[in-house]
């Protein structure tokens, strides 16, 4: 398998090069040159465990860059810290199923891809004697999942910036209570955008840290999307009904895109439903063809408070059948506030893949309440957005569907307590986490001070 840029750069990379490169030289994102087709093999794949299925799917994307024994060992280790024996689980309700993706170490779906990415990076770094330095910014879940995944890895150092005092208590403790020597956190006295800007500036001048290879771990890394295709197959195979739709809570469009990849790889579903919160740029784009960002509105589903969905560029690459000049027009000089308008023929094709909707704050709270009253089951706010949109978009179609649950409610327990009006009984692991003393490195919003911290840490 070769990987190519969404903006048409001539180089084709193999899996290992793509994983380390992150962004293409022309600023584009990497895509597989074609999709493998598993449609003739579904019956066999349906019998596999989550780990076995991951191995079958990844092998095709990685090619001969790794032997199967090594790959299987990486996969086994990646999922050994999950609390559920099946890794992901379809929870059955009377009117639909909920795909629980939150059984990993940091209680949100980002663990599924980041655990695997960490194992693969470590393997290839070891083979080539690379010393990796991973830098990232987070609004909460990605950073926590990345630190959990990279803690203790011997060839890798990792530093995650988060906006000081702007993340949930569980997220903070998850990022700041590690003992491992290879990881560090920075609480930046600024916003998430400030943290992201500092990281971007450092990546644009990587010579600053020349004794290390800098690697990015946000969802512009295609390995994460590939890893996320597995649970769509697994959930489909293990569903109690023949499923035609998945509904996906969406922010940066990584998870929904992974669902589309799965469809292109032969998963026999009709469509994916894209569910956003009140930050509904993607809903507007998928329904009306206009992509235009506005200010981010803070919501009770903060991991979806995103106006610039990086991965949408990858969907355009597929939708336009690799029209890289159009993508360059849209993205090279893109002012996200001016945005772009897709031509009518393309808009018509979106409906082959996606339905889209959003849930208001009120609707999200209402869904948490109703679902609890009906089933005694607590949805986290992100998962509730998806359930709300799924019911609005699919129920009338009379089709069986699976709604994706992206986080465990305990991660956002204060919102849950406010909505349901009682004290939420936290799992023991979260209680223990909350009792820990955080070690937070608070730093002013200043590039030089951040670089000094990194230099001291990587010495
Ligand atoms: C990251 C995140 C999302 C959004 O996923 P994307 O892949 O960015 O669309 C939704 N819910 C939770 C809990 C998340 O952490």
- What does the average pLDDT come to? 93
Rg calculated over all Cα atoms:
21 Å
Strand content: 5-15%
The hetero compounds bound to this protein are: pyridoxal-5'-phosphate
Distance between the termini: 37 Å
Report what the structure shows.
This protein is an alpha/beta fold. It has a domain of 216 residues: Rossmann fold. It is 43% helix and 14% strand. The strands form four sheets. The protein has a six-stranded mixed beta sheet with strand order 3-4-14-9-10-13, sandwiched between helices. The chain has a five-stranded parallel beta sheet with strand order 8-5-6-7-15, sandwiched between helices. Helix 3 crosses helix 4, helix 6 runs parallel beside helix 7 and helix 9 crosses helix 10. The model has no long low-confidence stretch (mean pLDDT 93).
Quick summary of this structure?
The protein has helices at 15-21, 42-45, 50-62, 68-78, 110-127, 141-150, 169-176, 192-204, 222-237, 254-264, 281-288, 312-319, 324-331, 344-350, 361-375, 381-393, 413-420, 428-434, 447-458, and strands spanning 3-5, 30-32, 89-92, 97-100, 132-137, 156-163, 183-189, 213-215, 245-249, 271-276, 290-291, 340-341, 354-358, 401-405, 442-444. It is α/β, with parallel strands linked by helices.
Task: Provide tags for this entry.
about 45% helix; globular; 19 helices; binds pyridoxal-5'-phosphate; alpha/beta; five-stranded parallel β-sheet; Rossmann fold; six-stranded mixed β-sheet; about 450 residues
């Amino acid at each position: 398998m070769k990987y190519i840029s969404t903006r048409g750069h001539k180089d084709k990379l193999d899996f290992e090069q793509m994983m380390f490169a992150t962004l293409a030289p022309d600023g584009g994102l990497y895509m597989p040159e074609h999709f493998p087709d598993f449609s003739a093999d579904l019956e066999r794949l349906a019998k596999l465990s989550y780990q076995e299925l991951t191995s079958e799917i990844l092998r095709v994307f990685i090619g001969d860059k790794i032997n199967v024994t090594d790959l299987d060992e990486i996969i086994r280790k990646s999922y050994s810290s999950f609390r559920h024996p099946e890794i992901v689980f379809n929870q059955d309700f009377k009117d639909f199923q909920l795909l629980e993706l939150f059984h990993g170490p940091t209680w949100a779906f980002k663990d599924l891809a980041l655990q695997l990415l960490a194992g693969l990076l470590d393997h290839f770094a070891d083979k080539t004697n690379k010393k990796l330095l991973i830098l990232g910014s987070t609004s909460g879940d990605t950073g926590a999942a990345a630190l959990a995944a990279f803690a203790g890895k011997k060839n890798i150092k990792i530093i995650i910036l988060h906006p000081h005092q702007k993340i949930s208590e569980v997220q903070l403790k998850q990022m700041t209570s590690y003992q491992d020597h290879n990881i560090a956190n920075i609480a930046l006295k600024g916003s998430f955008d400030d943290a992201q800007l500092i990281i971007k500036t450092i990546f644009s001048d990587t010579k600053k840290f020349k004794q290390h290879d800098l690697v990015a771990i946000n969802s512009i890394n295609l390995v994460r999307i590939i890893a996320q295709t597995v649970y769509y197959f697994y959930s489909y195979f293990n569903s109690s009904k023949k499923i035609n739709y998945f509904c996906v809570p969406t922010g940066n469009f990584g998870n929904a895109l992974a669902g589309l990849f799965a469809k292109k790889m032969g998963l026999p579903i009709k469509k994916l439903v894209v569910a956003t919160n009140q930050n509904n740029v993607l809903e507007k784009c998928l329904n009306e063809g206009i992509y235009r960002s506005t200010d981010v509105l803070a919501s009770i589903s903060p991991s979806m408070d995103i106006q610039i969905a990086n991965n949408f560029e990858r969907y355009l690459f597929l939708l336009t059948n690799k029209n890289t000049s159009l993508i360059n027009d849209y993205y090279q000089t893109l002012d996200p506030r001016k945005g772009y308008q897709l031509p009518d023929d393309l808009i018509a094709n979106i409906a082959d893949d996606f339905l889209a909707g959003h849930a208001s704050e009120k609707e999200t709270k209402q869904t948490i309440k109703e679902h609890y009253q009906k089933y005694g089951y607590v949805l986290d706010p992100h998962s509730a957005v998806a359930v709300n949109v799924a019911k609005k978009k699919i129920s009338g179609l009379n089709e069986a569907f699976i709604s994706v649950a992206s986080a465990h409610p305990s991660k956002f327990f204060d919102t849950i307590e406010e909505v349901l009006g009682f004290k939420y009984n936290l799992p023991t692991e979260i209680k223990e986490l909350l009792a820990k003393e955080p070690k937070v490195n608070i730093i002013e919003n200043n590039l030089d001070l951040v670089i000094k911290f990194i230099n001291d840490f990587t010495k």
